[in-house]
């Protein structure tokens, strides 16, 4: 939700060329889910400094996310303590008002770290690995240990007050009065009248209201979060808010309430809302608000579903909730890009609110050259593939197929494997995975969360694991609403994940009771598992997912990065690479896989960049599938530079497909997936052309650079023939530069 009139303040400092981003995050929970991605996005925009305001635990939390976020280097993160005096710039003053729950101290039994690490005592490598992790960043172990006492529960509220805005100088009126408009003499006159002072010009007194519009009063607006009933009384009694209710110096134009319906329905809370007076607008932001927030994702999915409506199922419409609290004051439910203008006139503005019209998207696609023909040809070519009436399992749902940072069309890594109608498993769980599940499954999302038996986290880059916390909490909520028990979720992950979960548990909210962590290294071939507890967990993992084998191997990416292979009792084998360069261990582990899901971050020709970033190119990933003798290779984890579609490689064959967010396939679909290429090329012709243009330019640049360096190496008499030869050479083909899998 955003109401741009009061979104976080961005202030550019022209002199120091430093930009300061003030973000006010009210609860630590919200930050855990959203902050890492937001910071990565801000960093992408070139923001050098980000100042965060928030609850007391914010600083420790920031330390924690720095542990896992190598990519956060390059942006200076600072924290403004919640007790700091108000923030002031040329537009407004922002007050932070911490509120403490009445229930402070309740419901916070001591955390039990053992719960999370069944193998702690015997898993000798864990301590060593963790130490390595902590070596990289000075997180104080004793600080973590001591924080197992009850955290201070505080929520921050922001009250912002716009400064009084001076009136505008009325040029025409000044001219009428014969003032020296357009000359240097007018400057002191303007300054004086804007300050509300009279001036004397050529013996005549001129009042400010004669040549200046009246000043705009200092309005205030409030952003308040009340996560549960425990905060209602403290909010109602808060002295700072009381000052702005009734006859305040600055009238409150808008109060934005981040509060669930149960709080909004509470008579005490409604009375508090009323006390701001009839002129104050109220904005509700909670789960009852429904609006399309990502038009591009809806558009692409609608168009893809024209090609194949079950492989690319249309996204679900936003949930509509009928039961809303009724309010005694003017209240608006939030929508994406809804604006409230504070100046010059106070009003709601809906011009940017997204309206989703699928018919338009369809019409646009049908007009594309060759699109309809290629879809027709695709249907012809696949009409002999037997369409199974019954749903087939496993069913693979790609929830996030982009790398690094979440973007509109491709979210970060997450793949749902529906093993059977009531068993599923997630391969990685990047930020926003829950949101993707909601968009894919709509009202079915709770049922799907209820089937989730395990999560595999390949490595601890932010694009692979930061969605896990929300999945854990939402799964707990979903199971409770279904009236089912909530056994711990089995999470196969590098041991280092433990520290991160522990920190959240200690600082913010209990969740360790919902997790059973199986160190990924314990599932490596030949690994000795000396802990009976871990052994038991592995047993329940295999049983829960109906697997004969769940194997992991170290891959060539960052430290502690794993790939995995799942062998089902019925014989199918799914192999997932995580992030990696071509990796022999993965090839060995994945022999004869039914399906390989392999990262293909970069296009062919970018082998050097791929090595630098420890990723694979398209043809390298396809090569790994060939070496593995995989029945099918599905490429994913594309660099976000390929927003809609990656560049196709000449190595594409009938056993290769590319993944899209929300694409859903079963093994029976794999025969037809390669045939999707022609309609996909028609749908994305414009984007492909643009990317090919970039590639051509790059190749010309490389050829020139090579020529220059050869010229420098050669003597002057050799130069002419060399030049001729270089120009006659075709640009290097992707194959010739291919780095072989090792
Ligand atoms: Zn990644
Ligand atoms: Zn990575």
TrEMBL record:
Q: Where is the segment annotated Disordered?
A: 103-128, 707-742
Q: What's any GO biological process attached to this entry?
A: mitochondrial tRNA 3'-end processing
InterPro entries (alphabetical): RibonucZ/Hydroxyglut_hydro, RNZ2-like
Q: Which gene encodes it?
A: ELAC2
**Cofactor list:** Zn(2+)
The name this protein goes by in its record: ribonuclease Z
Q: Which UniProt keywords apply?
A: Endonuclease, Hydrolase, Metal-binding, Nuclease, tRNA processing, Zinc
The protein's enzyme class = hydrolase
EC no. given is 3.1.26.11
Q: What catalytic reaction does the record list?
A: Endonucleolytic cleavage of RNA, removing extra 3' nucleotides from tRNA precursor, generating 3' termini of tRNAs. A 3'-hydroxy group is left at the tRNA terminus and a 5'-phosphoryl group is left at the trailer molecule
A GO molecular function annotation here is: 3'-tRNA processing endoribonuclease activity
Gene Ontology CC: one annotated term: mitochondrial nucleoid
Top-level division of the source organism's lineage: Eukaryota
Q: Family membership, please give it.
A: Belongs to the RNase Z family.
